[in-house]
Model the fold of this input.
Amino acid sequence: MIRRLIRTLRRTHEDERGVVLANVLIFGTVMMLLVATMIAVSTSGAVKSAADRNFQNAMAAAYAGLADYQAKLSNDNGYALYGNTNAQFSKATGSSFTGNDSNIAFTNTGTQWAPVVGSSDQSFRYEVDNSDYSAKGVLRVRVTGKSGASVRSLVANLKGDGFINYLYFTNYESSNPALTGSSCTTAYQWQTGVSGKCSPVQFAGSDVLNGPIRTNDVFTAACSTTFTSSVEQHDATVRSSGGGCNGVFKGGAPSTVPYLGLPALNSNMSQETRTDIPATVPRPGCLYTGPTRVSFLGNGNMTVWSPWSKATQVKVSSSTGEVTKSDDIAKAASLCGTIDALQSAAGATIPTLPANLMYVQDIPSAANNVNTWPAGTIPSKYSNTYCSTAVTVQGGKASTKSNQPYSNGQGFPAANEWINTGSSNNYRTGSVSDTYSCTAGDLFVSGGFSGAMTMVASGTIWVTGDITYSDPTNDILGLVGQNAVEIYNPAQCSAYPTSFGTVDYSRCTSGGVGLLNRGYGAKITISAAIASNAGTFWNQNYDIGSQLGVLKVIGSIAQNWRGAVATTGGTGFVKNYVYDQRLLTTAPPKFLQPVSTSYGVTTQVEVQSAYKTDGSCATTTTGVCR
Done:
């Protein structure tokens, strides 16, 4: 009995050891599975971390590529003409290039990429769309960055930090001595040790500047001058015109900025009328010669009078410099007007130039230039023309007087106009600085404008009346005058002095001078981006006559010297300058560019990757390269 009980207990103990062993085996298996799972999770996390890192680095490489292209543009404004015509992004937009500058970032096939400096696994490529560069001053670039197995692309719009980024830009804050008759020395107001330095032109108390303004000099303002946006200048303090205060700054305190250079000449813009350099000028504009008048008709058309013009599009021999007519005369006539019409009293009525430029040049003197006129010859299609016909200045009869120049063939001077820019011994006297030339590349313009165009003059652009947009959302105009962009504001004389019983028509009594066609409160509106390379934007005869109304400029103004439009003595216009916000992202066609500038990003967005990691193009669902 006892033996049977012992055997039973022994079997029970042995059964428990089997259960424990099974439990140990099960627990061990579970632990091995957990360890294996943890190892798998750790490995996949490492792979995911590497993929995430490559994904982020690919976009960082794209940003590095964008910065590389911006730097090249800033160092060379002509870099917009470099690219790869075979790149899909460029080819699809019709962009054209003069070369690729041996820049490997323009590669669009194969395994070669431009490396990111300081990185061993990041690289980039970029493709350029310059189809809107000449028309709007805007470049688009698609940049693709690569890191490991990740590729990402972005598209950015770039625009230069040009004059049209500002409502008002000046180089000097003093006036042009050649126009004022002053013997002062042109210098910046912040410069010291300059003897006889020209005085600044100040902003008046009633002036309102609705937009960002900038100068290489320093501004001078009255206490109640209102600046609604940023003020950028050589130093951080606007000078006071009196009373110890210097304006109301709603856009924040003035800030200091580096020098921004105006090109000394606009003559290089005339190459936009050449037909023999298609890589540089794929869409030539129009060339006009001598005093030219334009009247905008408000319906997308304009009438152009240019009697001295013989060829409106030209080609230039690279070996001799000879300037001849373009090969396709009919095409030039269709765009710019026929020569017969331009030389006629009726003028040529044509559409405003489509996203293009017109350039008005001086009558050339070179014998091998198609627009040259032989000595002693003048246009013959007007009955009242050019340097040979005396101007009617007084009493309805024509006479030659020492103060009056001959007609320039475009109606300037007007009948009874007194040419006046100075005074001497209580008498007003004439000055050649403000007369009208019959051979200069001067442009006279007014009217309701519709379209997108830039007008350039090698002389002066005279604004003879309102210039307004028919559609302020889409219309855009540029005015670039080498010597000046000037508001036509003619004077007249009602009292001449008498010397020994003879009327002296070369002078006018101070009290006898007044305005010819404007009276108290008269106003004018100019919608345009305005620039003067070596001159100024100003109001003719700003210092005589009664108080005029508001001069409203909707756009921007850039000038070498500060131009006066009024005096504190109650003459001239009251300013109301309003910045056209569209100029932050676009520009008039082929508008004036700074000597050098930086290019900023106006818009930026990530897009589908343009390339695969092996360097081949990424394709759409239809198999076409993106």
In short: The chain has six helices and 40 strands.
